[in-house]
UniProtKB/TrEMBL annotation:
Domain of life: Bacteria
Identification of the protein by name: DUF296 domain-containing protein
Length: 279
């Protein structure tokens, strides 16, 4: 097997390649209200708690997003495109970590959306500039004991989410984690689960990969791709991942991630929730 591609970040590699915080996860259905920025609607729906949101099947009045773009020449390995704003777009599938940046709520959101004539777009949704067309009920996983907090990352030069502990919890059933560049995504998930004593778990998350290789689809070749895990399952130490990926140009792709073939580009934010045994 060919060696995975590597890229050179501007800062020294951090000694700790993984931040993983045990926490308590509770699944809920909440209502997002129209007429205010999506970020505010998400924050209000969970009373400011840390959470993972499934934002699929949602109509918007206005939707703003960016997609990955080549390095701008300032030391970053990649950057973002100019902002695109769509009127009356529909979010087809998206996921978001709700955390904190500079003391205020912040959401990191990746997904796919359709414009008014059905054209599909993908990338990084700007929740603070997106407004829903109508109230909608969505599924969330609310977290106790951990959350994502943004900070400047010396290795990559980006301001990134990092999982942090917010308090002690009894009977943790989940792990909120962030992983660093060049770690194989499936291997890091297995490590997170093993360290937490999880044999079976549901995996959600988003981040970036150095290209994206699928088992059932042509690869996305851009050296920086934005990725959303659309389905993730850990079973007895083996992980199966399905994902959406978008690169610098061309359409997005969806499929089953090839095993041991995808390494992290800048960061990957993960939530593992222990599967409950069937009684």
């Amino acid at each position: 097997m060919a060696e995975p591609r590597r890229i050179i970040h501007p800062g020294p590699p951090a000694p700790d390649r993984l931040s993983a915080v045990p926490c308590r996860a509770t699944r809920q259905a909440v209502t997002l209200h129209a007429g205010i920025p999506l970020l505010a609607a998400m924050t209000d729906a969970v009373d400011g708690a840390a959470a993972w949101f499934d934002l699929s099947g949602i109509d918007t009045d206005r939707l703003s997003f960016v997609r990955p773009a080549p390095a701008p020449g300032d030391g970053h390995v990649a950057w973002y495109s100019a902002t695109t704003t769509l009127d009356r777009a529909r979010i087809v599938c998206a996921g978001a970590h709700l955390g904190r940046r500079d003391g205020a709520a912040f959401a990191h959101t990746h997904g796919v959306w359709a414009d008014q004539i059905g054209g599909l777009h993908a990338g990084h949704l700007l929740a603070e500039y997106t407004v829903l067309a109508r109230d909608v009920t969505v599924d969330v996983v609310v977290l106790e004991g951990a959350r994502m907090e943004s900070a400047k990352d010396p290795e990559t030069g980006f301001v990134l989410f990092r999982s942090v502990r917010t308090g002690k919890v009894e009977h943790a059933n989940a792990v909120l984690a962030t992983a660093r560049p060049h770690e194989p995504i499936d291997d890091i998930i297995v490590k997170i689960a093993g360290d937490a004593g999880m044999e079976n778990a549901t995996v959600t998350g988003l981040g970036s990969l150095i290209g994206t290789k699928f088992a059932d689809h042509a690869a996305v070749g851009s050296y920086a791709t934005e990725v959303l895990l659309t389905k993730g399952c850990l079973s007895e130490g083996q992980v199966d991942l399905q994902a959406m990926s978008v690169g610098f140009d061309g359409p997005h792709a969806k499929g089953i991630l090839a095993r041991s073939a995808n390494t992290i580009c800048v960061t990957f934010e993960l939530l593992l929730v222990r599967d409950q045994p069937v009684s």
